[in-house]
Amino acid sequence: MKQIVCLATSPWYPIPTRKQQVMSRIKDAEILYFDPSATVIAPLRDKSAKELMRKYRQPAVKPQENISVYSLPPVLPFFYKVRAINRLNQKRIARYIRKKMQEHGFEKPLLWVYSPVTVDAVDFIPHTGLVYDCVDRHSAYGGLMNPQQVDKMEMELAAKTDQCFATAASLAERLSAAQPETVFIPNGANFKRFVKANDPQPVPEDLKEIPHPIFGFVGALQSCIEYGFVQYAAKLHPDWHFVWIGKEKPGVDLTELREMPNCHFLGMKPNEKLPEYIAQFDACLNLFAESDLSKDVSPLKFYEYLATGKPIVSTRQPDQILQYAELIEIADSKEGFAEACEHALADADPARTAARIEEGRKSSWDSRVAQMCEILEKKKIL
């Protein structure tokens, strides 16, 4: 049986991202999936992080028969600023991974990584092939990092790989300088799940008292979201209601929106329940503020929205949504956003609904992962 070691940047639970969607669809391989490390100072900022300090000692979790999920041990902070610290961290991580590989009888698996920091680990982990799946412009995140250092590590990593994938065309173009065979493969949608939102669904309890029209956003409430457009539209149209589903990230001030009677924050919902919520939306919102980070993201929510067939109102970023411009409403300003929402409410053409669903079908995770595996199998990497 094929063997894969995946060093992820997202924990397997609770939110399924590209990493879980890809790994869960490679059925003919035994997979060791490693949740990312927390830093040793994480509990100073978040007391709940204390549990993460010990999680790497726990037995594997088995989300499906061929996948074992482990947590990596905690690491020293500032590894995005000081290369020597990253090298120290990654050598320790490599030792831990080798131990787990030995326990599972892995000798030289395919090594599949998601972060530039792993450049200092890959040489210490036996492998037959190396894949880097680039899902973001990591140096654009800000915080405790040296962007030039992160970019340098990423290009070094790309040069070591047998194959790179990237979720945005601009990311793929950049990595091609180090790995000429880099392939652009955007994120996708769990089509079978989200297409259900096009059919009648039970109304969730926390939506029953919210009148229509409902404009809904699903995703992390982070700093790269364009909240100002919604503030303007919510004031201009007090009869419109804006529903937010997702976790609020630290450092995001939503005070003004929370005080508005027609803005409703419902928190995180289980992924399998999201079609029930989106079925009640009159339009879905994709709201990325203009930035270097937003330009290169590949929003899972957008492809999930397509699969539902619902009207979509979007800002102009990320770049890859522009290929669907004829099927969605695009706003470049707060005034334009309000107008786009009006147009979305009038979007009742069954042909447009069907066209969005078809694009969602083409963007399914099954299709994306099949494309990845075909490339790797042709090159005898997988």
Instruction: Compute the number of strand runs.
Output: 14
- Alpha-beta content class: alpha/beta
Strand content: 15-25%
Low-confidence stretches: none
Choose one word for the global shape: globular
> Over the alpha carbons, how many angstroms does the gyration radius reach?
21 Å
Summarize the structure.
The protein is 35% helix and 17% strand. The protein is an alpha/beta fold and 382 residues long.
Q: What is the secondary structure topology, with strand pairs?
A:
Elements: E1 2-7, H1 18-23, E2 29-35, H2 42-45, H3 50-55, E3 61-64, E4 67-71, H4 83-103, E5 110-113, E6 129-134, H5 147-160, E7 163-166, H6 169-175, E8 183-184, H7 191-194, E9 214-218, H8 227-236, E10 241-245, H9 255-258, E11 263-267, H10 274-278, E12 283-286, H11 292-296, H12 300-308, E13 312-315, E14 329-331, H13 334-345, H14 350-362, H15 365-378
Parallel strand pairs: 1-2, 1-5, 2-4, 5-6, 6-7, 7-8, 9-10, 9-12, 10-11, 12-13, 13-14
Antiparallel strand pairs: 3-4
Helix pairs in contact: 8-13, 12-14
Protein described:
This protein has 382 residues and is an alpha/beta fold. It has helices at 18-23, 42-45, 50-55, 83-103, 147-160, 169-175, 191-194, 227-236, 255-258, 274-278, 292-296, 300-308, 334-345, 350-362, 365-378; strands at 2-7, 29-35, 61-64, 67-71, 110-113, 129-134, 163-166, 183-184, 214-218, 241-245, 263-267, 283-286, 312-315, 329-331. It has 15 helices and 14 strands. The chain has an eight-stranded mixed beta sheet with strand order 3-4-2-1-5-6-7-8, covered by helices on one side. It has a six-stranded parallel beta sheet with strand order 11-10-9-12-13-14, with helices on both faces. α8 (227-236) packs across α13 (334-345) and α12 packs across α14 (350-362). The longest helix is centred in the first third of the chain and has 21 residues, at 83-103. The mean pLDDT is 94.
